[in-house]
Amino acid sequence: MIERLEVLNERLMEHFGKFEDGRANWRIVWSTDELEYRMCSYTAEGFEFLYPEKLLVKKYPLQQDRYILEHLIPVPDGVDDLTTKTSYEPLWTFEDGNGNPLPPLWDVCKLLIEQVQINMLAAGKQPIMKQPYGFGNTAEECEMRAQKLMDELFGNDTKISDALAMDSGVGYGTRKRNDWLN
Predict the structure, then answer these.
(1) Which long-range contacts (CB under 8 A, 24 or more apart) does 159-168 make?
(2) Engineering a disulfide at 13: which of 8, 24, 62, 85 sits with its beta carbon 3.0 to 4.6 angstroms away?
(3) How many angstroms separate the CA atoms of 68 and 29, rounded?
(4) In this predicted model, what pLDDT tens digit does every residue of 17-71 receive, in sequence order?
């Protein structure tokens, strides 16, 4: 089921917390709406400034009309073009293998963020001990979860099948609407 962006962002804040200044650690944004201040040496027309100036520019000029999962992180020392101490940085762009935009899904966000957190906690440490079999981590169960997510994200990558899967296309025959329960 596709949830509204506000609902997903609220769930992200409740599940993964806030930064020390009260902003959400994780958020989903529409890439076309995102702007940020950067120190720029050139105008939009390509003319060079005598001194770098702070300009409001598109954050994702090459990824327009997409949902993007972002993580709030401190800006490292030595990064001179960003003008803030913290910045939302992209983790995942919701699009299929053909570059077509996809709606954001809670299960995908949760899986990605949990994997990032596991990797960050495990950096420089012993490998994390896996749970015993029967707790959802057998090879078959992992494969089933991965296949289900791949099917939801990419389908079979044709415009017709994606339109039918997203209920934005027209087809002949009847379709049972309880297929999302499986």
Answers:
(1) 159/100, 162/96, 162/100, 166/103
(2) 24
(3) 5
(4) 988 888 899 999 999 988 888 888 887 788 888 888 888 888 888 889 999 999 9
Q: CA Rg, the chain, in Å?
A: 20
pLDDT tens digits along 106-165: 999 999 999 888 888 777 666 555 555 556 667 777 788 888 888 777 766 677 776 766
Pair of tokens at residue 90 = 């992209």
Contact 81, 38 (CB under 8 A): yes
Cβ atoms of 88 and 27 closer than 8 Å: yes
As a whole number of angstroms, the distance between CA 130 and CA 48 comes to: 55
Q: Tokens 């990605």 — which residue?
A: 112
Q: What six digits make up the tokens of 83? A: 């003008």
Count how many residues are written for the chain.
182
